[in-house]
Amino acid sequence: MIYYLQHLEKMADFCEEFKQEITNLCFTDPKTKKLCSEPIDPDYCWWPRFQEYLEIAQGVVNICDMLGIAHLDENKSVMTEYILFLTIPQAINERKYFEKCLDFIKDCFKHDEKEIRDRIQLLDIEEKNRLNEALNCYIEGCNYSTVAMSVSAIEFRLFSLMMSKCPDSELEKLTLGQLITEYLNNKQKYGNVIPKKHLPLLEHCNTYRIFSVHPKKEKITRAIATSIINMTFSFLLDEDLKHKVKENKK
Q1: Quick one: which of 9, 88, 158, 214 has the most CB atoms within 10 Å?
Q2: Is the CB of residue 220 less than 8 Å from the CB of residue 208?
């Protein structure tokens, strides 16, 4: 499994590592040990080590807009183009072109490094684990699994919020649907801890969670999976919700 959230936090360093290692492997004369402007193999982008780096870079760029950071949103399309160039031997047939692709992506993530780190630090370790699984499923095109794992992360946060306001061991026995019903029927009991803007999201996610894990005819399309995982990030990266958990635990 690729830990996309961790790579998001350190993507600038990852791009530099990618560039340095491939430069040493593919743009260094094995006899003289000197750097070359052209690769020692014109098809070097198909080397296993290159592909390992590329898979991670491609995935991170693909999901970077889920963080809701404007600068990344604005530059995602250009970064995607540079990722595409890295898959075409003719597009990176000189070292300067290869480096240009990675330098642009590196600079984009470096620009937002602190904001990315601050967003991801809003997540608990369990939420990170579930989201990483959801992201791996999403990248692989597994729409049903994407929804199931995304919503399980929402369930963990909802449970934490309700428990922080009104500790009750009985809550542990409830499914997500039951947790939502319990909260909606007793909002004052739980201090209205969930903002109104997120209530439709919870019900929407629960509906598709049922579709994703039960053998019914409803199909989970790519569009639905994309919508659910984006809403999951919106919910979990809401600073007000995270602060409420911390305040209520004091």
Answers
A1: 158
A2: yes
